[in-house]
Amino acid sequence: GHVVVAFVYTTPWDNYLVATSVWWYDPALVTGYTIGWVPIEEYTFFVLQTILTGMWVVWLMMKLKRPASGNFRERPTIRWGLTGTAVLLWVISTIFLVFGSMSANYLTLILSWALLPIILQFAFGADILWYYGRLLFWGIVPATLYLGAADALAIRAGTWTISSEQTVGIKLGGILPLEEFIFFLVTNILVVFGVTLVMAIQSHERVTHLPAAVQRFLPAPKTNASLTP
Question: How many structural domains are present in the chain?
Fold first, then answer.
């Protein structure tokens, strides 16, 4: 499920990046097969990232000591506070995307694209994610560092190039653009959050109560008055 969502959601966005020269690739270093503007290797990458990061999280779930499920309590302040913060960041990013300078283009494209599903994840279960904070840390940080290092090697080899005009100019280790690191960070956040929410028993309980929670916000059905002769 996560692989399908990642593929469908990322494909048009990534094609837009290549079409507008946010990044490009060396045709001599890829097979030459493309879907739209993007080489097949890129599609393979984000499918594999979803699978590998997801498997990493599942492995961590088996190895790390889980917090006792009986200690969980719903925390609306965290849930809606983080959701509101993410919405605010999305609004700011989108404003800069539309009206900001060209150098902020790639960064705001990443944030405005990634924050939408993160907002949905927070709205459903930010307090659940908070409860599994240790798992999230070890799921996100090592995967992000690993993929960032691999990307730096690819950029150094010239496999692909990131536009200097559409980035802020900060390069980690003198090679990896800040935007690329943030891309791996937010995509790993999406995968780790998603797998955690799917696997958490608290999510299953919340889903069962979701219809009743939604019903409270809906108008009561009108009853037809009976007609007396």
Answer: 1
Domain span at residue 34?
2-199
Confidence (pTM): 0.87
Tens digits of pLDDT across the chain (229 residues): 788 998 888 889 989 998 998 988 888 777 777 778 888 888 888 889 999 999 999 999 998 887 766 788 899 999 999 999 999 999 999 999 999 999 999 999 999 999 999 999 999 999 999 999 999 999 999 999 999 999 999 999 888 889 999 999 999 999 999 999 999 999 999 999 999 999 999 999 888 877 766 656 556 555 444 334 3
Measured between alpha carbons, how far is 16 from 12 in angstroms, rounded to an integer?
6
Q: How far apart are CA 184 and CA 145, in angstroms?
A: 8
The C-alpha atoms of residue 151 and residue 168 are separated, in whole angstroms, by: 18
Residue 213 lies in a domain: no
Nearest 5°: phi and psi at 215? -60, -30
The answer to whether 167 and 177 have CB atoms below 8 angstroms apart is yes
Asked if residue 180 is part of any domain, the answer here is yes
User: Which two tokens mark 177?
Assistant: 């653009």
